[in-house]
Amino acid sequence: MADDLIINSRVTVPAAELEFTATRASGPGGQHVNTSDTRVQLRWNVLASVALGEIQRQRVLTQLASRLTTEGDLILACDTHRSQRRNRDEVAQRLAALVRQALVPPRPRRPTKPTLASKQRRIEQKKRRGSIKRGRGRTGGDE
Q: Where on the phi/psi map is residue 30: left (φ > 0), alpha (ψ -120 to 50), or beta?
């Protein structure tokens, strides 16, 4: 894949930043899987990437923190297909989808006020609970 990886209209990862390695795929598949390097692993260093601005980098780092290595590498692998080219294309598309999703800014929370009915329900529930607790005390009987 000599082409740059297009994430969205503003972000394009240069092909030089993407490191593809091919290894033997595991699992069933007969003699073909034992002799051909069809599993493709993609490594992309988020920290060193020139494709992202500082805000975008921070967003990707926080959203994909669980998938990153300590050096800031994002590693994806694909061994779904029998062909190395198809696995390479699919792993690139997976990376693009992950980064695209991570770059979506979070929607701002609009603070809302509780409704009058919910306030009244809360107060009634508190009064009910308080009366239950009052009933647990000692009785005022003659002992």
A: left
**Model confidence over 39-82: pLDDT tens digits?**
999 999 999 989 899 999 999 999 999 999 999 999 999 988 88
pLDDT at 107: 92
pLDDT band at 1 (very low <50, low <70, confident <90, very high): very low
CA-to-CA separations, 134 to 66, 100, 120, in angstroms, rounded? 50, 57, 21
Give 116's DSSP letter: H
Note the helical H segments in the chain. 30-35, 54-63, 84-103, 116-134
Is the torsion defined by CA of 44, 68, 64, 41 positive or negative?
A: positive
Q: Among residues of the chain, what percentage have pLDDT more than 90?
A: 62
Which tokens sit at 41? 């692993």
- What is the residue extent of each domain of the chain? 5-103
Which of the four CATH numbers 3.30.160.20, 3.30.565.10, 2.60.15.10, 2.30.260.10 does domain 5-103 have?
Answer: 3.30.160.20
